[in-house]
Each structure stands twice: as structure tokens, then as C-alpha cells.
Write a structure and sequence with these properties.
mainly alpha; 89 residues; globular
């Protein structure tokens, strides 16, 4: 019985683990201000993944928009995005 309640509680939080297109778009607008992201967009293969790949877009959406202007956080995001791009490419 306890396991069923745990699963129901977990299921209630699943929608919050996903990000929506609005968050993704907002983060992409912030990231476009950085040269490293422009370099990814200039690479045709990476550009297609950024536009169409669900995993890449979810990764971008999970970035904290308010922290994207900070160099240390930006560097962390660059590494994370690079890793997921290489994984799905």
C-alpha cells in the first residue's frame, strides 16, 4: 500500500520535471548573446539538434535563466550542452 502512495506522489511531480517551450525559448534568447552558443548555431548539425532534438531542448530549458549572465554558470551550461550535443549527434 505504501509503495502505491509513493508512486502516486511521484506521478504528481513528473510534469514539473519537464520544461516547456517558453522556458526553452527564453533561455535560447539569453544564450544567443554568448559566442560559444553562436558557434553551436553556426554548425549545421548542432543547429538542427538545438532546434529539433527533444533531449537537447530539455537541457537548454533546464538552465536557470537568471544565472545565464554569470560567467561561471555560463561555462557550466556550455559544458553541459556540449556534452549532450556530442551524445546525440
Amino acid at each position: 500500500m505504501g509503495i502505491i502512495l509513493d508512486l502516486l506522489n511521484f506521478a504528481a511531480y513528473i510534469p514539473f520535471l519537464r520544461v516547456d517551450e517558453q522556458e526553452i525559448g527564453r533561455n535560447i534568447q539569453q544564450l544567443k548573446r554568448h559566442q560559444w552558443f553562436q558557434d553551436f548555431l553556426n554548425d549545421e548539425q548542432y543547429r538542427k539538434l538545438i532546434i529539433h532534438n527533444k533531449d537537447v531542448r530539455q537541457t537548454i530549458g533546464k538552465f536557470k535563466t537568471s544565472k545565464l549572465s554569470k560567467d561561471a554558470y555560463n561555462s557550466k551550461c556550455q559544458k553541459k550542452l556540449s556534452k549532450v550535443l556530442l551524445k546525440v549527434a
